[in-house]
Amino acid sequence: MKIDVKNGGERLDVFLTENIDEMTRSRIQKLISDKNITVNGVWVKANCRLKAGDTVEITVPEPKETQLVAEEIPLDIVYEDEHMLVVNKPQGMVVHPAAGNYNGTLVNALMAHCGSNLSGINGEIRPGILHRIDKDTSGLLLVAKDDKAHLGLSEQIKEHSLTREYLCLVHGNIKEDSGTIDAPIGRDPKDRKKMTITQKNSKNAVTHFFVLERFQKYTFIKCRLETGRTHQIRVHMSKNGHPIVGDSVYGRKKEEFKLNGQLLHAWKVGYIHPTNGEYMEFERSAPEYFTQVLATLRRRSI
C-alpha cells in the first residue's frame, strides 16, 4: 500500500493498526518483528516513521498447525454454509484463547464443529475469527471457514458496510429519541485493560442509538455500529452519561439487579455473502436474563 501525505510521519505499526481492522496491533508487531512487513522493500522496526510515497508490503505467512484443543461445546448456529457461519455466542463465553482462557472458548468449540475448515488469516489462536464481542456480551458473530470468505467479510468491516445492531439497557433516562456519538476510542493510559475516548493513538468511533422504551431510571435502546472498536458501545454510552446496566468496568458500582455481565446483546447482523453476493441478515432476540429485567421494569410502570 502507498502512503499518503496525511499519513506521513506516523509509526509503521500505528498506521497499519489504524488501516487494517482485521489485525490487532500485537499481530502486526509480530509480523514486523518476523520480517514479514517491508517499507520500500526493506525490513524495518515497528517504530519506523513513514514518509509520503513510501510503499508498505505485507506478507502473511501460512498459519501454523494450532496447538489448541477442540472441545465439544454446544453452539447456537444461526446459519452455516461451506464458506462461513453465523453463531449466537452466550454471555460468559470468551471468543478466542488468551492468557487465563485457553479452554472453553468459542474457538475451541468451532474447532470441534468445523475441524480444519476455518480460515487461518488471523493466526493460530484465532482461526475463523473476523470480529469479537466481549466475554460478558451475548449475540451474533460471523465466522469464516476459508480465507476468501475471511477477506471478503473483513473488507466489509473495514468499509463499515456490515450491519451490526445491539440491544442494551442503560442507566438514566435518555431525552432524545435518537442520536449519534462520534468520539475516537483508544487505550486508557491509566489502565491498559480499558478503553477511553481520546485523541491520542485512537481510532474514529461512531455509534448511532435509538430509544426503544423508557423507564423511570433506565432506557432500553438499540445501537447501530458504524465502526467496531473494542468496547465501543460500552465506552460511548458511559461517557455519554448513560452506562450500560451490569457493566462492571465502565458502569456503576452499585446495581439493583443480580447480573453476571452487562445487558448488551448483538441482536442483528447483515452482510453481503462473500461468494454469491447476496445480502443476508439474521436476528436473535435478547437472552432470558435480559428480558426478565425488562419485564420487571415494565411491571413497575403499570
Describe this structure in words.
The protein is of the alpha+beta class. It has three domains: 5-58, RNA-binding S4 domain (Structural Genomics Hypothetical 15.5 Kd Protein In mrcA-pckA Intergenic Region, Chain A, Roll), CATH 3.10.290; 77-155, Pseudouridine synthase; 164-266 and 288-301, Pseudouridine synthase (2-Layer Sandwich). It is built from six helices and 15 strands. The strands form three sheets. Strands 4, 5, 6, 7, 8, 12, 13, 14 and 15 form a nine-stranded mixed sheet that branches. Strand 12 (206-214) and strand 13 (218-225) form a beta hairpin. It is globular, with a radius of gyration of 20 Å. The model has no long low-confidence stretch (mean pLDDT 90).
CATH superfamily name of the largest domain?
Answer: Pseudouridine synthase
Q: How many distinct helices? A: 6
**Estimated share of beta-strand residues:** 25-35%
Low-confidence stretches are: none
CATH architecture of the largest domain: 2-Layer Sandwich
Q: From the alpha carbons, calculate the radius of gyration and give it in angstroms.
A: 20 Å
- Which sheet architecture does the biggest sheet show? 9 strands, mixed
Number of domains: 3
What form results from the Cα inertia axes?
globular
Helix content: 10-25%
